Amino acid sequence: MQQILVYADSLSWGIIPRTRRRLDFEQRWPGVLELGLAAGGRRVRVIEDCLNGRRTVWEDPYKPGRNGLDGLAQCIESQSPLDLVILMLGTNDFQSMHPHNAWHAATGVATLVGAIRSAPIEPGMPVPPVLVVCPPVLRPPSGPIAPKFDGADRKCTGLAVAYREMCEEQGCHFFDAGSVVNASPLDGVHLDAAEHLTLGEALVGVVDGLLAHPEAQAEDAGAAGAAQ
């Protein structure tokens, strides 16, 4: 069984725009990803650690526990062994109480990548590769969350370019969600159900290419057993 950790925020948690409700697992992009990989013959589990309001490395002045760096190393430790970690964070860095731009968000993600790679996993367990998924840029926010994200559509300018450059520097994998989906016109921030489906399906091939093939895993397991 291969294990993938999705460490993310409300865009991956599956909040339904303009509501406080949540899409079902098979409707959320992590669920679509798991089902798509399974349909291709993989024994895989997608573990969701998605917290509404989570930033990359900054605190929410109104809600505790939204700093993505806090507890990340322990999350990697508790969920290991992992075959891949998918990071999709940054949207909340642009909330109106923060002055951040695309460079700040990308640098925050780089800090998270470092925490994943230095997590205190058990001896012999693999350090998982990291896939950074850049969130789609925000639209002008509307509805109840508009004050919270006022100006976010301007502050996030150049996000995909900043993330791509950071991934090249850090030596991790990159996918631009904005190349296949857009923020919902209902609130300018989150993803509609159709966008979850599109993103999950787009990531199936990307993730499949990053995971070891089951045949190779079986050979490695057999070799390890013979060595014992």
Automatic annotation (TrEMBL):
Transmembrane segments: none annotated. InterPro entries: SGNH_hydro, SGNH_hydro_sf. GO terms for molecular function: hydrolase activity. Keywords: Hydrolase. Residues 9-194 form the SGNH hydrolase-type esterase domain. This is SGNH/GDSL hydrolase family protein. It comes from Thauera sedimentorum.
